[in-house]
Design goal:
With 580 residues, the protein is α/β, with parallel strands linked by helices. It has three domains: 132 residues, Alpha-Beta Complex (Aspartate Aminotransferase, domain 1); 258 residues, Type I PLP-dependent aspartate aminotransferase-like (Major domain) (Aspartate Aminotransferase, domain 2); 137 residues, Sufe protein. Chain: A. Helix content is 42%, strand content 16%. The structure holds 4'-deoxy-4'-aminopyridoxal-5'-phosphate (PMP).
Length: 580
Amino acid sequence: MTLNPPPRLPVQAPLDVESIRAQFPILKTLAHGRPLTYLDSAASTQQPERVIEAVADYHRLHHANIHRGVYGLSQTATRLHEEARAAVARFLSAAEPAECLFTRGATESINLVAASWGRANLKPGDEILLSTLEHHSNIVPWQLVAEATGARVRVIPIDDAGDLDLDAYRRLLTPRTRLVAVNHVSNALGTINPVAEIIAEAHAAGALVLIDGAQWVAHGRTDVQALDADFYVFSGHKLYGPTGIGVLYGKRHLLEAMPPYQGGGDMIERVTFAGTSYAPLPNKFEAGTPNISGAVGLGAAIDWVESIGVEAIGLHEQALLRQATERLSRIPGLAIKGTARRKSGVISWVMLDPPIATLDIGTQLDLQGICIRTGHHCCQPLMDRLGVSSTARASLGVYNRSEEIDRLAEALEAIQASSRPRVQTADGGRELVYPAAVAESPQAAAEEIAEIFELLPDWPMRHQHIIDLGDKLPTMPESLKTEANHVSGCQSQVHIAARLKPGSRDIVEFLADSDANIVRGLIALLQQLYSGQRARDIMGFDAEAFFARIGLDRHLSLTRRNGLESMVRRLRRLASPLAG
Ligand code: PMP
């Protein structure tokens, strides 16, 4: 790590992507036997050898607690930690390192400002301006502080392309506006916001501005002084650095006036029971032993990014974004969400014709070794505005290459081509047939299912088997897809209608459905296990152990496991009072 800026390549130089890729050990690994195509850098970037080594070296050779030790090792650790802060200050063009506080990440940085500045400065009637594009981490902390202080959250709308409505912004800026908090780049749509303009207008109206730079710093140059940002936040793990480390930049006079966020060691000057005085910046906001190795890793990541040139990285990603936009636009039935004038390397879409749930798109791409993100991207208000519950999103990093965009597009075309229309069950008229028991008990059904799964050696084959089961699941009549039957906690739409079998006293049966094929397959498994079974046997069956036995615990995402558990809970809730 150095205090002086490392030499940078000229901006125009095309990146040598192959030599960059060679520095990322993870890119040499396989996913389901296929080369890894990592298109989820907006969630987290991968780490180059240099960062991994810097962290490992720190642990191997330099670890000690910082600030306190009089011995050389502690002083070296302190120096490395502070050199990382200097690298952050240089990277952001901050006036001084003390304005750059280490946090756990963008989320904690925003929470720090909301809790410390917000509680000290906001009063009833004050307004905080956010935008429809915000990540939950730039919404919920403000809602919490608004609730605590009587301030109000107001929202800058967007147009259909995903650009902020700047006229509406100007109208919303009033003497009541105390703070504007917007992202530099939208993680869900890739919109690059005109933050310099936003800041200038806010300042003219007397408001402060916090910029959430989580999705910007790895893709273009950041100059907090030129922007005149009051607060600027980002996370290390989206900048080729480790998780658990991030930054809050704040102007010195603002940070000095703010009360501490957390109390503890390292943030004090003098403690007595009569009262405590606080350490100067940055320590006032860094209570307790910090993430020293994380800071060292972040410093190394910044050095690494600067050695390539962040503008060069941005240009490389722009070329790939153009290719991806052009290529995905040619897929009939695929709708790109987010067509803002200026975008970073993020492309979001939904499949409308044939309709394919984003969860299925993500799961099927995974089997090809292609990692994308599906879901609401922690932007539920934005999803509501777009009229979708989720999108599929590919996001780019310095290591992505043109072939990977082709692979993605070809895989999407193949998914589309293999999609089969569902056999619709007629609504009304006929009496609905709830599935009868397939075995003597859930345990006996589980044994039969496990026998089949054990014949399927890998996840792609098991996944296909689950999809095949889902294909045979009759669709649920629309009349049963009520709010009461809706299952929350799933990434896809799920409904379940469970009942006591007519004429019986303790037999539970159910119908369920989802817009995602993978979930329909899981529902089919649940029906085999539970439908038509006695309440007592349902209560006695350990579903979690069974899912682990057939490998679902390792291959289902947390949200899908939660969804599965929600369905099991519903069935058990119905069964419990009948179990005797
Ligand atoms: N803001 C934006 C725009 C983001 O994309 C993210 C991460 N997805 C965050 C904030 C939160 O970052 P972290 O989880 O690292 O705190």
